[in-house]
Design goal:
The complex is a heterodimer of chains A (135) and B (337). Chain A is mainly alpha-helical. Chain A folds into two domains: 47 residues, no CATH class; 77 residues, Non-ribosomal Peptide Synthetase Peptidyl Carrier Protein, Chain A (Orthogonal Bundle). Chain A has five helices and no strands. In chain B, strands 1, 2, 5, 6, 7, 9, 11, 12, 13, 14 and 15 form an eleven-stranded mixed β-sheet that branches. Chain B has a two-stranded antiparallel sheet with strand order 3-4. A two-stranded antiparallel ribbon of chain B has the order 8-10. In chain B, helix 3 packs antiparallel against helix 4. The longest helix of chain B is centred in the middle third of the chain and has 22 residues. With 337 residues, chain B is of the alpha+beta class. The chains are: A mainly alpha (135), B alpha+beta (337). Chain B: One of its GO terms (biological process) is lysine biosynthetic process via aminoadipic acid. Chain B: This is holo-[acyl-carrier-protein] synthase. Chain B: Keywords: Transferase.
């Protein structure tokens, strides 16, 4: 498989203001990935104006789950996955803000309040973190 | 206070679900195999009044009663309730929906008293509203409501005309994060200073919770969603003459300490459109109420909020508690009826 050369990636530039439902964009037609044992995500370096979000790493999801369990005082064996909704787990608005604060500290990011309010599941939190970490 | 007895129909005999014969619901539980007792109707609040209704989930133990409440809900709301993880969360979610439906039904708008028939919608920002039937000649009343719940308290505030936001929280709620670190991140500089000036950590914790509930109540009253009013864009100010009384539990009937909101984009003008009340309920919870100001008493001075508070177990019993120890005004200008 050909590997990406940084200068030669050419693909349609996508709006960076994709809404949440379109965040996982597949550009498999245009891009070939390097064959290597490493995670794909760090090796994708893209031109400005293009944003590709693959689903967040399991490691990120696991860290979010840990923070959520701690904030909501859930038992360690409580079933919390990417699909789990904060509200359904018992998080009220104060819990949600505390969870976001915990994520900011854990990942060294800053989450705008507007974005914080739109996070409702573990997966959404993990995806947002990855986006912010990449910057 | 007056305790209004529910009308209890002649019950067919059925087994009590409770092992403890001294349970106050032991006898009542036999009635729930029949239809729920009728809701006691209430007059709509006048333009200047605010009605506060609340349920204490721990006092609602009857499984048959909770099933009957579930039957009041449309399928979509039942699904929503069942989507919560665990009995306790499901129960408070159920009681929240039950409280709002039964409360609004009591006002018998257009002769209706059936909580099942109410429909709700959300405005474009997501704030829940009643969707009244559009019938010829029927002008829906400008009934406003807002709900808030924790696992230990479910509350609903109702007004005629005034936008209302309400938030409840346990007094002893602790944040996982350090209060000042949290406040520096999410509150305004004035509020951080206010908290920082409190030497006692217990009082500081309580003050934080009071501020949190007031800020939530304001945003909920605005009804435009939290992202339109991030917490660090407005300051809740308590006037200095009232600083001490803000921290003390004071007279039940009338209290007068000023709480006001100031938005950062117009710092010179206190935003006069909103007035606040802060209550301590049953000694265990803070209830913050934010209301759109309807009229002023000359020179911009607001009339006190006229509050009627009732504790309820819908279709079982109602208890008027305003003016009692159960509802203590600790902030804002409130007269209890």
């Amino acid at each position: 498989m050909a590997s990406i050369t940084r200068a030669s990636v050419s693909m349609p530039s996508l709006s960076t203001s994709v809404n949440q439902s379109q965040r996982r964009i597949s550009v498999m037609n245009s891009v070939s990935f390097p064959v290597s044992g490493r995670s794909m995500i760090p090796s994708l370096r893209l031109q400005r104006g293009l944003q590709v979000c693959c689903a967040a790493k399991q490691e990120t999801v696991d860290k979010v789950v840990a923070i959520v369990k701690k904030q909501l005082a859930l038992p360690a064996d409580a079933a919390v996955t990417g699909e789990s909704k904060f509200a359904a787990l018992g998080a009220d608005s104060l819990d949600t803000v505390e969870i976001v604060m915990g994520l900011e500290e854990e990942f060294d990011i800053t989450v705008e309040e507007e974005s914080a309010q739109s996070i409702t599941t573990v997966q959404e939190a993990a995806d947002m973190i990855e986006k912010l970490v990449e910057k | 206070h007056r305790r209004l007895p529910a009308v209890i129909p002649t019950p067919p005999v059925s087994a009590s679900p409770f092992p403890n014969p001294k349970s106050q619901y032991c006898c009542l539980s036999r009635n729930f195999s029949a239809a729920l007792t009728p809701l006691l109707p209430v007059q709509l609040p006048s333009r200047m009044e605010t009605h506060l209704w609340y349920v204490v989930p721990d006092e609602v133990k009857s499984a048959p009663l909770l099933s009957k409440y579930m039957e009041l809900l449309p399928q979509s709301e039942r699904d929503h309730v069942l989507g919560f993880r665990g009995d306790q969360l499901q129960k408070s979610a159920l009681l929240a929906r039950t409280l709002v439906r039964t409360t609004i039904a009591r006002y018998q708008v257009d002769g209706h008293l059936d909580p099942r028939s109410l429909r709700f919608k959300r405005n474009i920002h997501g704030k829940p509203e009643v969707e009244w039937e559009t019938k010829d000649g029927f002008c829906p009343p400008p009934l406003q409501f807002n709900i808030s719940h924790t696992s230990s308290l479910v509350a609903c505030g109702v007004t005629m005309n005034s936008l209302i936001g309400i938030d409840v929280e346990e007094k002893r709620r602790r944040t996982k994060n350090n209060i000042l670190a949290f406040a520096k991140r999410y509150f305004t500089a004035h509020e951080v200073e206010h908290l920082n000036a409190i030497p006692d950590s217990e009082l500081q914790q309580q003050e934080f919770i009071k501020l949190w509930t007031l800020k939530e109540a304001y945003v909920k009253a605005l009804g435009k969603g939290f992202s339109s009013s991030p917490f660090n864009t407005f300051t809740i100010r308590v006037n200095t003459a009232a600083q001490e009384s803000f921290c003390l539990v004071k007279a039940r009937k009338e209290a007068s300490s000023g709480i006001a909101v100031e938005t950062l984009d117009s710092p010179q003008n206190l935003t006069n459109n909103w007035q606040f009340a802060l209550l301590e309920l049953m000694g265990s919870h803070y209830v913050a109420i934010c209301l759109e100001r309807q009229e002023t008493g000359g020179a911009g001075k607001a009339f006190p909020i006229k509050l009627t508070a009732r504790k309820t177990i819908p279709s079982v019993e109602d208890e008027l508690v305003s003016g009692t120890n159960a509802v203590v005004t600790i902030g804002g200008s409130v007269t209890q009826f």
